[in-house]
Structures are given as C-alpha cells and as structure tokens.
C-alpha cells in the first residue's frame, strides 16, 4: 500500500498570521509539492487570492482549493472530505497538504474527519500547528482585533457552534502539536519567554512552542512532524485551559527577506554506536535538556551492515535500518535544529559521549 500523504492543519484566530506563515512556507518549500486547502468566508476569498496570486513556483493555481461555505469543522461531510478526495485522486498527487482553517474552526472535528473511510487509508495528519498573535495574547486578548473576529462569526450562516472565543482559543491550544508565537518581534525578551512558558505549561506534554516573526519558520520545523494526530484524539479532548489566541492573515503580509535568524542548525559527527536503543534514549535526554526541536540523521551500528536512520520531533524518536552502507563511509552524522542560542558545544559533547 502506498504511503499516506501527510497533511498539516494550521489553526488560529483572525490576524494571528496563518496566511503569512503559509506563504513563507511555500517560498521556502525546497522543491516539496504542497497543496493548500483554504477555509474562507463567503465570497471574500482573501487568503486564497493572496496565495493563488503569489507567483511562487510551488504554488500553482490548482494547488490552492478554497472552502467558502463557512466554518470547516461544521461542513466536514459536504465540503472537506470531497475536497480531500479530489486532491488525493489527482494524477500528480502532492507531497504534502496544508489546511488553513478559519479562525472560528474547532480543530478537533477536522482532525477526526481524517478517520472517515473515504480518506483514512490515503492521508494522515502530520501535525496541528496553532498560530497565536503573541502581542495580543501577552496583553490578555485573543486577537489583535476582537471585533473583527466577532464580525467574522456573524458572517458565517453555517456556523453551528457558539463557542466563546476563550474556549475556542483553549481548544486550539489543546489540539496543537506545535504552537507558534507569532509577532515575537513586538515582545520584549522577558515577555516572550514568559508567554512561551505559559503556553507550554497549558499544553500537552511534548507540544513544541516556538517564536516567530512574520511566520518565518524553517520548513523542516513546520512540516514532517509525523504525529498521526487522527489516531490520538483522546489526548486532544476539548478541555479548556487558560489562554488567548488569534488567526488568519497578518497585518504585514508580503515581504519575507528572513534568513531564519531565530533558528539554527548544525551537524554532529561521531563514531559508531553499539546499542541503538540505548543511543535513542541518550538522544531523547539530550533533546529534553537542551530544548531541541528536531534531530535527524544516520548512524553506523557496530556489527550491522545497514545504516540506522534516526528522526526525532521533540523527545519522540523513530529509528529504523534503511539500507546498506555499500561504498558510503560508515559514519554517524546527526543534524540538530533548534531556536537560536543552543549550547552547541554541550550538545556536541553529549551526542559524542
């Protein structure tokens, strides 16, 4: 059976910067073919128009599909599942699907929809990314413009849940695998650190909380989480914490001359390892200690002709033997990815121990 196509759900209130984040992702997709499903309201089509007209090589017109019949979580059977089927049935199926929800969508029903028989064997939820307006949340609001969010709610005739904004925000946090604190440039270092800590404590264990400016996140951080969220719904129950949140398109949306200064990556080489299980446990401890976002690479295992592939998203590690080394050098090389300020020397020493 062919591998399932991964899909990432991007949620958050109006104004948090979801569209900006997605546009930046497309501009830095590194050849990955990404299809988009954009949940719009009425005839406006703002986000879809922005992304369709972006002129980005990996963003063809037919790679952007719009759902404009209202909140996506309320129109799963009528809109979402048939749209997914169209994407999956294409001869040139995408490498990855990204779904931008409206700011009023409850993410849990959408993630559950991936268990529908029509699509469950062909696509999986790589991860749920919740984007928040860092400045608004730090100031005790859910959005930069709460009135605009309420106006959006009034425009949607199909909205069948009257969830208070505070609970919507909490559900978006409860469902997240990654929380992006956007507009971090508008916060002081201490204020941003306090907000990141608060969001981390109010989310499930293992949820990554990262800061971003103009949605500028490396694709390797945003995509490839491999969560399989549709099989993990019990952990994402609509339980309400204490938080504030935000959605769609950012106030300043078009210029992304960022080189990801807020993130860094480096390669660590070491000798062969003797025990893959013990090494995976060692790596998990290092990731927790240094708050590493991603770690991936290959290892040579003493006495084994096959190369060991290792991929970690936070402390969750997958390892498997993928192919013989053949003529390639038997070496262990690991790529470490994290937010700027990693203690490189300590991480290198720990991984080489």
Amino-to-carboxy terminus distance? 40 Å
Supply the number of helical segments. 11
Q: Class by helix and strand content?
A: alpha/beta
**Order of strands in the sheet with most strands:** 3-2-4-1-5-6-7
Order of helices and strands: EHEHEHEHEHHHEHEHEHEEEEH
Strand content: 15-25%
Task: Flag low-confidence runs.
Answer: 41-50, 52-56, 239-260
Provide the CATH top-level class of the largest domain.
Answer: Alpha Beta
**Average pLDDT across residues?**
78
Tally of strands: 12
> What is the general shape?
globular
The fourth-level CATH homologous superfamily of the largest domain is: P-loop containing nucleotide triphosphate hydrolases
The CATH topology of the largest domain: Rossmann fold
Radius of gyration from CA coordinates:
20 Å
> How many domains, in number, for the residues?
2
- Helical content band: 25-40%
CATH architecture of the largest domain: 3-Layer(aba) Sandwich
Main beta-sheet strand count, sense and barrel state: 7 strands, parallel
Helix-strand layout with pairing:
Elements: E1 5-11, H1 18-27, E2 34-39, H2 46-52, E3 64-67, H3 76-89, E4 96-100, H4 107-112, E5 123-133, H5 134-138, H6 146-155, H7 165-175, E6 178-182, H8 189-201, E7 208-211, H9 219-222, E8 263-270, H10 276-290, E9 294-300, E10 306-313, E11 316-324, E12 332-339, H11 344-352
Parallel strand pairs: 1-4, 1-5, 2-3, 2-4, 5-6, 6-7
Antiparallel strand pairs: 8-12, 9-10, 9-12, 10-11
